[in-house]
Amino acid sequence: HPAAVSMIVVGNEVLLRRELATRALAALIADVRERSGVPVAYADVAHFIRQNPEVAAAADILLIHLLPYWDDPAPPPVEEAVAGVMDGYDEFRAQFPGKAVMIGETGWPSRGRVRGPGHPGLVEEARFVRGSAAAAAARGIRYNLIEAVDQPWKRRPEGTVGGYWGLLDEDRALKFPLQGPVSAHPGWR
Fold this sequence. Notes:
Blueprint: E1 8-12, H1 22-36, E2 40-45, H2 46-50, H3 53-58, E3 61-65, H4 78-95, E4 100-106, H5 122-139, E5 143-145, H6 155-158
Helix pairs in contact: 4-5
């Protein structure tokens, strides 16, 4: 259905989780491209794609995951996070000139543990989401925010922060307005 399917993503964080060897993943991407006739993408944390150029060469589109809260050894403060994502995008594009690149995942958590200067919070998430959307729009960068809805099940594998990346809470209520003031204590008089 080429009118409805703009790309097929073959693999999401396969290299990160070591689920397939580089050569096998590249072969799978090539096979899907040959059979489907639509562009084929691969999605992973940017540095795993950088370390595996064979996979990057096999894909038509690279979807890079730039999640500054998870940066090591410590994340930046949210005030610097959007600029860091844009810098990471530019560095990646420079390494793969001519390759279509999209930000496959970016976001900031609204709750959970503090990691150095990386403070999760409702105001911080709103600041990151709004700033990322504005920066990407200004530069014509396609991106996906992670994620639409908070996912409580992720608190077990990722710690408390894992369940709080959504724009909507687990009851599907918008966590903050997409414009205007945001309060860390919205019920406060």
